Amino acid sequence: MTGLFSEVFLSALLFGAVTAAIPLLLAGLGEQMSEKAGVLNIGIEGMMLAGAYLGFVGAFYSGSLWLGFLTGAGGGVAVALVMALLCVRIGLNQIVIGIALTLGLEGLTALLHHFQFSRSYPRLRAVDVTVIPLLSDIPVIGPALFRQHLIVYLAVALVFAMGYIYRRTQLGLNLQAAGDKPAALDVAGIDVVRTRTVAVLTTGALAGLGGAYLANVGAGLFIPFITNGAGFLGIVLAMLARGRPVWVLFGALLFGVCLSLTTAMQVAGINIPTDVIQMLPFLAVMVMLVLFGRRASLPAALGIPYERGAR
Amino acid sequence: KSIAILTPEEGTDYGWNQQGIDAAKAAAKAAGVEIVVAQGLGYGDVRPTLRELAADGASLLIAHASGYNTSAPEIAKETKVPVAIVDTPTGLEKGLVADYTLSGHEGAYLAGRLAAKMSRSKSVGIVVSGEPPSWNSQSAAFAQGVKAESPDVKVTYAVIGPAAYSDAAGGKRVTESVIASGADIIFGQGNGSSFGMLQAVETTKAGDGGKVYFIDVIGDKTPIDKGFLLSSVVWNIEPVYAAMIADLKADTFGTKSYSIGLKDDSVKLLKTAAIPDNIWAEIQALREDVISGKTKVDPVYDAAAVRALMTSVAQ
Amino acid sequence: MSIDTAPAAGATALDATAAVATRRDIQHRLLMTLGPILAALIIAGCILLAVGVDPLAYYGFVLKRGLLSPLGIQQTLTRMAPLLFLAAGLIVAFRAGMWNLGGDGQFLLGAVTAAASAPVLVEVMPAWLALICSFVIAMLVAMIWSLVPALLRAYQGVNEIITTLMMTFLGTSLANVLVKLMFRDPGTTVPQTRTLPVEDRLPRLFDTTITSGLLLGLVAIITVHLVMTRTAFGLKLRIVGANPRAAIHAGLGVPKLTIAVFAISAGLAGLAGAVDILGVQGNVRADWNPAYGLAVIPVVFLARMNGFAAIGFVFLLSVLSIGGESAARRLGVPNHFTLVLVSIVLIVLALAEYIDHRYNQSRKA
Amino acid sequence: MSVAKRDIVALEGVTKRFPGVVANDSVDLEIRPGEVHVLLGENGAGKSTLIGMLSGLQQPDEGRILVDGEPTAITSPRHALALGIGTVFQHMMLVPTLTVAENLLLGGPWWQRPKTEELEARVAEITRTLGITVKLHAKVSELSLGEQQQVEILRAMVRNSRLLILDESTSMLTPKGIDELGALMRRLVEQGLAIVFITHKLKEAAAFGDRISVLKLGRKVGEIPPERFRALGEQAIISEIVELMFGKQKDDPEAAERPVRTIRAEAAPLLEVRDLAVAPTDDAPGLSSISFDICPGELLGIAGIDGNGQKHLAEALAGQRATVGGSVRLQGTPIEALSVGERRQKGLRYLTDDRLGEGTVGTFPVSINFFLKQVGAAPFWRKGVEQRAEIDKRAAQLVREYDVRTPSLKTPVARLSGGNIQKVLLARELAEGAKVVIFNKPTYGLDLSNTLASRQRIRDTAARGLAVLLISTDLEELLSMCDRIAVISNGSLVGTVENADDARTKVGRLMIGLAA
Ligand SMILES: Nc1ncnc2c1ncn2[C@@H]1O[C@H](COP(=O)(O)OP(=O)(O)OP(=O)(O)O)[C@@H](O)[C@H]1O
Ligand SMILES: Nc1ncnc2c1ncn2[C@@H]1O[C@H](COP(=O)(O)OP(=O)(O)OP(=O)(O)O)[C@@H](O)[C@H]1O
Ligand SMILES: [Mg+2]
Ligand SMILES: [Mg+2]
């Protein structure tokens, strides 16, 4: 089998794994922030779709990928704004609104695509990569990991930035308090609603960015339902990661690698039904849960709207 | 008098749905009947739509998806309105159910020959988003064509994933991997995800630094091509629908299966500027051989069989 | 996410004033449901206008095709059957405080096993018995599928949102594998299970095309409602849901109840799959996933986990999806618009409930 | 009025309404530096609501609040903090998953790194003057309730409050802790702070206060200004308060005599516990070799500082917590292997200290909460089907018998006042078939009249010949009721004392680790 796998191919596989992992990573990091602050954000799939659509529109009409990422993040924020308004400010049920937003954006983006692109199917140019000197010369790993678009490095850097925020800043304390005991945060003089709103909007920005990456870099185009459940995977990753950004990264990479493994096995001509291979990442996670499935430490106030002085 | 066609997705995909709808429109126009298009119905339950169309007076319901071949005959019996279904040659019923099994395998075989002739790297790839029978038969025939042309040419087969019809990112990712494994011609089948494949072809260089070419199926993506489309196995379903309408009028509906093939150009290979004339001439000669029966191409519909075949031709 | 106990109260009211109050309450409820729907239709109408479609014509078709025409209403009622089972399953889980988000996986596995067993069984036994056996098999398979999340939650405290989501991804894949590799109909090239003949399926009601699965669904959801509100078992589950620590304090076997909740909830989802197959579809095709579960979840919340209210909302959802499909076709809007419509209706209903609640509070103060 | 003693905060005609209740009804109040202003009143009198408005959690519906003489709308907790109003709330307001230091740091500008060093220095300074120690780097969830309360007081200090509000802050403290808190308050007012101190214990009010205001049903019904306060002795103050609160003259109501009961010495113990052991958890030490007997009609008290294993003991006896050794016999039959329900069947009852957390289901009607531990039992359920008429009948009976004040049987139990919720629990646990009853802090958070009523219930229980285990952190309560008092410390019983004249000192010695 080794003969089959040229260096170029292996590195393409790894590259593919990273490309598939980045949207999951961004969605997972975003969801993690909401959950930390006590908001179960089921609408993240809708935020990703909004990001994918607007991100593509931005990149396509401006010709600039960066502008695309910006509009994509903006799209996610716009949806998050609705969520923040309805679920954080006035305290509607987060699951109802989350699912409704996801359904609505599935429909809306498909509708817009139909009227706008369903005849022309525009596609973007190839993505410019930033080559990291020296590191990119490492065989196999180099081209896969160190010849990526700048946003990929930024996304990975974000993991560590988030870790820093959570552990070392007042904002991190605020977020954790908002999720574990919002009343305590409130009497400490920090507005819980504002803190949670910030968290939800950040989620929207990250999910939107993830969607934009998926459309602009992952696919190079937009089609309806392009996210294919990536948002829900993000929720799972965030919950598995127990508040640690690094674990979101690991989880996202696991999924990406499993996807590439599927391709690798097929190219190697191993005759296993794809449906079976496709179950691999989920099976892996389930096995992990069964083996190490200690109590997932979710924030105590997760899913519960905060109202000052309510009893 | 009117006929109705039902498709799972919108008829703007330069593929299965669009070819079906365009053909039905053309056939209806030629026959002077009205046409009702019900598109984007999804792969769920179409019985409500079938019943409604029947109640609205359609005299033929074309259920243009293999997913509809259980519900449509049932509704035909219930409402006594004739239906046409796909991929079910055994389901014929006089006056009620006709089958049209569309397989472009003959065309795919030619595409395989073409790809083998044109591949610089002696390596071609097949990327599919799922494994429905009509795609399987083309994947298999394509591989057979490649091997018939030159046993040295490597064929790589990759499925994006189950129900990955809209996974454009997956299409791009898998296609890029296949290109990295050496392929410089991609035979791609997928609905939404085929645009991802196209994108991969357009943005990835082959191993020798040259262009990678794409061979499409069913529809004609020339209008949106950026110069990477090598060919397409184009299906023209209009003759099938025309024959159905004729049979309906002649009271012979439901007595035969309809199909498409190279013979009447209902399956044909698209000629693009990327194909040199001499190679195109050779392909045309091969086409004659297939039509005359000198070359036999048997369709393989089963996914497991296709994968077994791919394993055997991979090396 | 509090569990509402209102239906438990108020039921003993029998005297005249209470009857008047109840009637006013029902009127109020109706107003608070129809009002928001109207508002949602107006908002969605603006989107229609924006894409150049006459909203009145659109809604006209929705009403006509989903509700008022004999054909339309029959389709609507038929569509309700699996949704009712799913809603019943979710009511059990949500009232017991367990977020079973794995309905789609359980539904599909139930559907596949029902589709695999029924055509075989009808050949060896009377059709009615075969149907019953298939229902039981579907239910059991779905129950077994829920065992992993149930055990993890009951004995390890692993959050069930993660596990049920994972199991639904897995279940969808597994259902495909089963269809393609194990239960495939050898008689066709299309990857699907064998087809249960129309005459062996669940009988239709009277002379219509409405499946008797509708009745089963109604029975299921009403039974669930009564069990949850009127029996000791239902009360135990509600205690677990409302305050798990109180359940332990009161000596309830929380782990066992947890497993029971998952089993019942998943079993009902499995039955939902079976009723769709045995009543309507007749077989399962590869890659088939109607994803009903996702739309039913908010519906159950909006109904405040009340079975009767859920019936109403499921009806609404069916009207919108059947009528919307038809209207979209006639006016050249992509079918996806139905999703937008449903989403807006859900959001506006949730908002209306909030405003109503606020209004009541300020009136009391 | 002297210039130096200008009000820091004054309330003028403040009214606050909630759905169905007027929590504060045009209340006037002056809060001055250098004074401990004690707020008294029954449960629900509106004390905490008043505090809520001072700390920015709520806004008055009518009236105004003056800060330094200026009418000020205190719009948010942040605003209150900025005005120098620091509050220790009745309910714990710490984030359990953060460390003490992090909790103290909460509230800083969001973009900054927490200023840990600065905090440490400041805390060191404050704790030195206050004479307390805190574990800055321990997680709050690992602290005992008493320690948590200290952290909250510390937090108010760290923020440089000019006005410190303590809402029932002594409820979790030991007698020694209470005295220390009293001394601390004294030092603080001497430094020029103003303090508002809320308590249900009249002795504390008399001992620590300078000025007393009494609330009743949301109205201020009386005030004892400092001049009068100093003029009166403790007894006089208490009887004046009692008159204000209850309107009838009565001497120190808590000093009810312990009725002399005779326990037949030869009677076999109803409950025998031998060498009971429980594994430790995050928030409490494990139990080791706990042994004691209780005879019919006997009232055994368990004294000790909160968090020394009392809850584990109660839960292990009730069957809610797994044991790792030892035996429990009820009327001679071993019950350690039985489940919660089976033990209840045998007559073992456990009245939890966590009324809303585990004792009741807050959203369920009062009627159902009477039968939470009997779900499925006849005659309230037949063949598993709820018999609503039977339930309502019996519930109505219990409501009458135990004087539960509830608008209706259908009212969600969480809407009731703490005292009334406690009555529901008492009714549930003492209903037919009880033989051994464990009371865990039965009067915690209750006002005077409810406390007295509950204590009477407990005495009556023992008088009926039941064995009673009374766990309490309130030494006075134990001394006034028990036959014997055992002291628990760090998970084991360090001694048992007959409740005779010198019991107070003996128990006190045991509690601080000396031999009796
Ligand atoms: N959220 C609420 N909504 C409506 N009424 C309430 C609410 N909370 C409390 N009440 C009512 O206010 C009254 C007093 O409640 P609170 O909890 O303050 O009582 P309490 O004074 O502690 O009682 P007790 O003296 O018996 O301990 C109760 O009779 C209750 O019915
Ligand atoms: N957020 C709220 N919503 C509704 N009612 C409330 C609310 N907060 C307080 N109340 C009601 O206002 C009244 C006063 O309550 P408050 O908590 O101020 O009493 P309290 O004097 O502090 O009693 P306790 O001694 O039990 O602490 C009670 O009847 C209570 O039920
Ligand atoms: Mg109270
Ligand atoms: Mg209070």
UniProtKB/TrEMBL annotation, chain A:
<keyword id="KW-1003">Cell membrane</keyword>
<feature type="transmembrane region" description="Helical">
    <location>
        <begin position="198"/>
        <end position="215"/>
    </location>
</feature>
<protein>
    <submittedName>
        <fullName>ABC transporter permease</fullName>
    </submittedName>
</protein>
<keyword id="KW-0472">Membrane</keyword>
<keyword id="KW-0812">Transmembrane</keyword>
<keyword id="KW-1133">Transmembrane helix</keyword>
<dbReference type="GO" id="GO:0022857">
    <property type="term" value="F:transmembrane transporter activity"/>
</dbReference>
<feature type="transmembrane region" description="Helical">
    <location>
        <begin position="247"/>
        <end position="270"/>
    </location>
</feature>
<dbReference type="Pfam" id="PF02653">
    <property type="entry name" value="BPD_transp_2"/>
</dbReference>
<feature type="transmembrane region" description="Helical">
    <location>
        <begin position="95"/>
        <end position="115"/>
    </location>
</feature>
<feature type="transmembrane region" description="Helical">
    <location>
        <begin position="6"/>
        <end position="27"/>
    </location>
</feature>
<feature type="transmembrane region" description="Helical">
    <location>
        <begin position="67"/>
        <end position="88"/>
    </location>
</feature>
<feature type="transmembrane region" description="Helical">
    <location>
        <begin position="276"/>
        <end position="293"/>
    </location>
</feature>
<feature type="transmembrane region" description="Helical">
    <location>
        <begin position="150"/>
        <end position="166"/>
    </location>
</feature>
<dbReference type="GO" id="GO:0005886">
    <property type="term" value="C:plasma membrane"/>
</dbReference>
<dbReference type="InterPro" id="IPR001851">
    <property type="entry name" value="ABC_transp_permease"/>
</dbReference>
<feature type="transmembrane region" description="Helical">
    <location>
        <begin position="221"/>
        <end position="240"/>
    </location>
</feature>
<feature type="transmembrane region" description="Helical">
    <location>
        <begin position="39"/>
        <end position="61"/>
    </location>
</feature>
TrEMBL record, chain C:
<dbReference type="GO" id="GO:0005886">
    <property type="term" value="C:plasma membrane"/>
</dbReference>
<keyword id="KW-0472">Membrane</keyword>
<feature type="transmembrane region" description="Helical">
    <location>
        <begin position="337"/>
        <end position="355"/>
    </location>
</feature>
<feature type="transmembrane region" description="Helical">
    <location>
        <begin position="80"/>
        <end position="99"/>
    </location>
</feature>
<protein>
    <submittedName>
        <fullName>ABC transporter permease</fullName>
    </submittedName>
</protein>
<feature type="transmembrane region" description="Helical">
    <location>
        <begin position="204"/>
        <end position="228"/>
    </location>
</feature>
<dbReference type="Pfam" id="PF02653">
    <property type="entry name" value="BPD_transp_2"/>
</dbReference>
<keyword id="KW-1133">Transmembrane helix</keyword>
<keyword id="KW-1003">Cell membrane</keyword>
<feature type="transmembrane region" description="Helical">
    <location>
        <begin position="161"/>
        <end position="183"/>
    </location>
</feature>
<feature type="transmembrane region" description="Helical">
    <location>
        <begin position="292"/>
        <end position="317"/>
    </location>
</feature>
<dbReference type="GO" id="GO:0022857">
    <property type="term" value="F:transmembrane transporter activity"/>
</dbReference>
<keyword id="KW-0812">Transmembrane</keyword>
<feature type="transmembrane region" description="Helical">
    <location>
        <begin position="37"/>
        <end position="59"/>
    </location>
</feature>
<feature type="transmembrane region" description="Helical">
    <location>
        <begin position="259"/>
        <end position="280"/>
    </location>
</feature>
<dbReference type="InterPro" id="IPR001851">
    <property type="entry name" value="ABC_transp_permease"/>
</dbReference>
<feature type="transmembrane region" description="Helical">
    <location>
        <begin position="129"/>
        <end position="155"/>
    </location>
</feature>
